[in-house]
Amino acid sequence: MNTTDHTTRRSSSGVGTYLLHRAMPHLPPWLGAAGVGIVGSGAHLMWAESAAAGVGLTLSAVALTGATWWAGRETSAQRRLHSAITVAAGSAWVTGAALAGPLSGILPDTYLMGGAVLALSWNVRMALRSASDAAPAPTESADKSLLEKVGLAKAKIGKTEVEPNRVTASLALEGGTQTNDDVARALVRIASALDLPQSAVRYQPDPDSARRGNLVIVPRDMLGEAQEWEGPSTPGGSIMDPLIIGQYDDGSPLMVWLPGDPDAHRNASHFLIAGGTGSGKGDAALNLMTEILSRRDVVMWLSDPKAFQDFRPLLPAYDWAVEGGPGTEAMVEALQHVIPARTGWLGKHSYRQWTPAAAEKQTTPAHSCRPDRAPCGCEGMPYMVAWMEEAANTLRALGDDAFTGIAQEARSAGVSLIVSLQRPSYDQMSTSTRASLPSVIALGCDPRDEGFSLPESVIDQGAHPGAWGNRRPGYCYIVSSGIAPERYASPGRTQQFTGKSVSLMETLAEWAVRNGATADPITAGAAKAVVGRAYTGRTPTTETEQQPLMQEQDDDIVTGSQLDPEDAAMDPESDLPPAKQGDDTPLFGQDTGHKPTPEEARELFARALDQFETAGQMVVGPKDFMDWCDANGYSRPWVSARLRDAAMEGRLEPTTQTGRWRIVPALTPA
C-alpha cells in the first residue's frame, strides 16, 4: 500500500513537472498582463488627482510605443506590428487607470478581455513558431544553408523573381570581405548543390557595385530537343530587322543584328563564329545565312574553301562566291577597295552610317550628293555581308592579319564581316583582327579554348562552352551589340538543318535571284576595277526570261549568224580539213624546239597574264607559273623578275602578302 502511494505521488509529480515545463514558455505574456494591472493600480494611488501626471503618462505611452516600433526594424514586419500594438494597448490602459482608477467605467472589462486576448495572441504566435521549427526549413533558411555550403555564408538573398523556368534572386555580399568574383568561382558548386548542369546557374554582377548582383537559375533545359529549321523568320524584310537563329534556354528567341541603329544605340556588328568539330557550326552558319539572304536590301560575298559543301543549295543567291585559294585572295583585295568606295558614297549622301533608306533610290534633298541639294536620283546601296567560311585556311594563306584592315573599316561602309573557324586562337588570328570582331557565336569547344571565343567577363558569369564540346550540337552563347549584357551567359541553341531543308533552301535561293538586292554601281564598279572578270556579280533573272535567250542562242549557232563574215559559209557539221604542209610552223617563225627570244618570252608572259585574267584568277605569284615555266624552259627567278617588271608597267600591283600580285584589269576598247 505504501509502495503504491509512493509510486502514485511520484507519477503525479512527474506529470506536474512536465506540464510546468511546457507551460513556462507561455507564461511571460500573462505575467506581463498581470504587471500592467499592478502598475495601473499603483499609479492611480500616486497620481489620481494630478493633471501633470496625466500629461506625462500620455507622452510616456507615445514614446514607449515609438521606441518599440524603432527597435523592431530588424525583425519581421508582422512581429514589429504585433509588438507595437501590444505596448500601445498596455500603456494606454495604464494611463487611463492612473487617472480614473482601475475599476472605473469600462477599464475593468477592457483589462480582463483585452489583456487575455493579447496574452493569448502571443501564446498562439509562439506555438506557430515552434511548429515551423519542427517542420522543414523555410525557403530563406534553405537559401542560407545553400550559401553556407558554397562558401558564401555571409551573403544575403534579397528580392526573388520567379518566372516560368527561370528564378532570379538579388544577392548582396558582405562588404569588405566578399566580391562578385567570389560568386563567379562558386557557381559550379552552386550547380552541384542544386544537382543542375553548370550552364543552368549564372551570375550577373551589378556594374555599379563590386558586391551586388543577380543569381539566375534555370532549372529545366528547354534546349534538349532540337528545333528543325522551317524557313526564314522574315522573308522580304529588311536586314535592319532582327535575325532569328534559334531560341534561349528559357524559350525566348535567339536574335542578332548586323547593321547599327542610332535610335536603339546599337553599333554595326562583325561576327566570329567559333566551334569545334561536331559542335553544329555548319547549322549555325546556315541559320544566320538563310536569314540574311531572305532580306530584300542586302548582298553577300562568300569564300568557302570546302567547295560549298554546306551551302550549295544557296549558291545562286550569293552576289559573289569563291572556293578559296586565288579566288579568296581576289575577294580580299576587292574588299579593301570596295570599303572606301562605299564609305565615300555614304558620306556624299549624308549618311553617317548605313540605314535602310540608303538602299533605296535617293530622291530626297537630305540625302543628295548634288551641290545645290536637289534630289540626285542616285541608285541605292544595299547592305553588304562578306562571309569567310573556314577562315583558318585563308589566314594561313594570306597571313593572320588578312582581315584586320577590313574589320576595322568595314562597319562605317555598311559592311559586316563574318569569320567562321574552329579555333580562333592568337596563333591563327592576329590580336588586332580578334579585337575587331567583338560579336561572337560561341559553340561547343575544348575547355582550354573558351578564352579564345568568349570575353573573360562572360565566362565569369557562368558561360562555359567547353562543358558541351561536341556532345550538344547547336548549343551556343552569343555576345553582340543589341543583346542585353545579362543575356550573354544564357545558352541558346540554333535550329537544325536536315535533308528535308534542302528543297526549302533552293526555293529561298530562287526567291533571292528574283527579288533580292543586287550590287549597286559603286560596289560593283570598285570590285571590277580591282579584279575584273573575277567578280561575277548577280543580276535578277527569271526562268521565263532565260528560256527564250537560250533558244535564240541555239538557233544562232545552227545558222552560223554569230560567225565572222568570212566564216559564215562554213558548215559546222562538216569534218575538219586534213593537215597541210606548214601548219606546224612555230608561232614566232623559229624552228621547232627553239627557245623564244627575250622579247618573245615577255610577249608570252603577257599573254599568260591575259589568260589568268580571262579565267578570273586575278591574284598570281611564281607558283602559278610552274607549268608555264616547264613548257617554255624558264626558271622561277625569271618569272619573279617578269612579275616585278609587269608591276612597274602598271599591269600588276603588290598585295598584302609577300610574293603575290594582283592583276590590274586591262582596259576594254570602247
Q: What would you say this structure looks like, in words?
A:
The chain has 670 residues and is of the alpha/beta class. The chain contains 20 helices and 17 strands. It folds into 4 domains: 22-134, no CATH class; 139-217, Threonyl-tRNA Synthetase, Chain A, domain 2 (2-Layer Sandwich); 243-532, Rossmann fold (3-Layer(aba) Sandwich), CATH 3.40.50; 594-670, Arc Repressor Mutant, subunit A (Orthogonal Bundle). The protein has helices at residues 2-23, 27-47, 51-71, 77-100, 107-134, 139-149, 180-194, 281-293, 326-348, 391-398, 404-409, 431-435, 450-453, 456-460, 501-515, 521-531, 543-559, 598-615, 626-632, 636-648; strands at residues 156-163, 166-172, 201-205, 212-217, 243-248, 253-256, 271-274, 298-303, 320-322, 383-388, 415-421, 439-443, 475-479, 492-494, 619-620, 652-654, 661-663. Strands 6-5-14-13-12-7-11-10-8-9 form a 10-stranded mixed beta sheet. Strand 1 (156-163) and strand 2 form a beta hairpin. The longest helix has 28 residues, at 107-134. 34% of the residues are buried.
Quick tags:
20 helices, ten-stranded mixed β-sheet, elongated, 670 residues, Rossmann fold, 4 domains, alpha/beta, four-stranded antiparallel β-sheet, Threonyl-tRNA Synthetase, Chain A, domain 2
The number of helical runs is: 20
What are the low-pLDDT stretches, counting only 5+ consecutive residues below 50?
Answer: 134-140, 541-566, 582-593
CATH fold-level assignment of the largest domain: Rossmann fold
CATH class membership of the largest domain = Alpha Beta
Portion of residues in beta strands equals 5-15%
Count of structural domains: 4
In CATH, the homologous superfamily of the largest domain goes by the name P-loop containing nucleotide triphosphate hydrolases
Q: Strands across the major sheet, in which order?
A: 6-5-14-13-12-7-11-10-8-9
Helix proportion of residues, in percent? 40-55%
User: In angstroms, what is the radius of gyration?
Assistant: 42 Å
Would you report the number of β strands? 17
The oligomeric state of the chains shown is single chain
What global shape is seen? elongated
Tell me the CATH architecture of the largest domain: 3-Layer(aba) Sandwich
Distance between the termini: 141 Å
Average pLDDT taken over every residue = 81
**Structural classification:** alpha/beta
